[in-house]
Design brief:
Elements lengths: L2 E6 L6 H10 L3 E4 H7 L6 H10 L12 H10 L1 H25 L4 E5 L14 E6 L2 H12 L3 H10 L3 H7 L2 E4 L4 H24 L1
Bound molecules: adenosine-5'-diphosphate.
The site of adenosine-5'-diphosphate (ADP) has 15 residues, from helix 1, helix 6 and helix 9.
Length: 203
């Protein structure tokens, strides 16, 4: 079986930057956020299930999911989140497993901001945390998305605390310097992961 690495980190920590670097090394990266969007595209069974569960108002005239309306509804009706996740989580999991097993690179990465929170780390063999201070997270995410400091702080407050993620991860990269410093640390880990992948293939 192919060695699967989980890659996580809070908002603005540098997950995407790290993922892109691994891709330049020929490693397939599966992004849980992208999968979450794919499984509710028109024609997908999960979208039909959501429509059946909540009503036709969740579908826009172009056939796409009305994310904003659903988000607002869930905000008002807390049980609705559980109903929605009972539909989406298994569909996301199935699709991730399919994509992981179809990958042909020496090892494969599952990147997810909620790797530990949603138990997606059960699908991986080892987990890498891209870590950064809250101040840096805020600075980078606000620069990237133009979101307010308050909005980013709100997102950070619902994500698993940094210390907890540090304790759960097998490898931690502190992304607190120049981007080249991040790449240098990833290079060392990549060699390590290639070795693990090789051993795993032989066993
Ligand atoms: P995440 O995917 O974890 O939310 P990103 O990888 O998108 O975070 O990084 C957030 C922003 O910060 C991006 O614009 C990225 O280019 C930038 N960035 C990431 N790491 C560094 C770094 N070491 N130095 C400078 N900018 C960085």
């Amino acid at each position: 079986m192919t060695f699967i690495l989980g890659l996580t980190g809070g908002i603005g920590s540098g997950k995407s930057a790290a993922s892109q670097w691994f891709e330049t090394q020929g490693i397939t990266v599966i992004d849980a956020d992208i999968v979450a969007r794919e499984i509710v595209e028109p024609g997908q069974p999960a979208l039909a299930q959501i429509q059946e569960c909540f009503g036709d108002w969740v579908i826009q005239s172009n056939g796409e999911l009305d994310r904003r309306a659903l988000r607002e509804y869930i905000f008002k009706e807390p049980e609705a989140r559980q109903q929605l996740e009972a539909i989406t989580h298994p569909a996301i999991r199935t699709s991730i497993i399919q994509q992981l097993s179809a990958a042909t690179s020496p090892y494969v990465i599952l990147v997810s901001p909620l790797l530990f929170e949603t138990n997606q780390h059960q699908l991986t063999h080892r987990n890498l945390l891209i870590d950064a201070s809250e101040a840096l997270q805020i600075q980078r995410a606000s620069h990237r998305d133009g979101q307010s400091i308050e909005q980013i702080q709100k997102i950070i407050s619902v994500q698993m605390p940094r210390e907890k993620k540090q304790a759960l991860a097998d490898d931690v990269v502190l992304n607190d310097g120049h981007i080249d410093h991040l790449y240098h640390q990833l290079e060392n880990l990549h060699q390590h992961y290639l070795n693990i992948a090789k051993e795993k293939k032989q066993s």
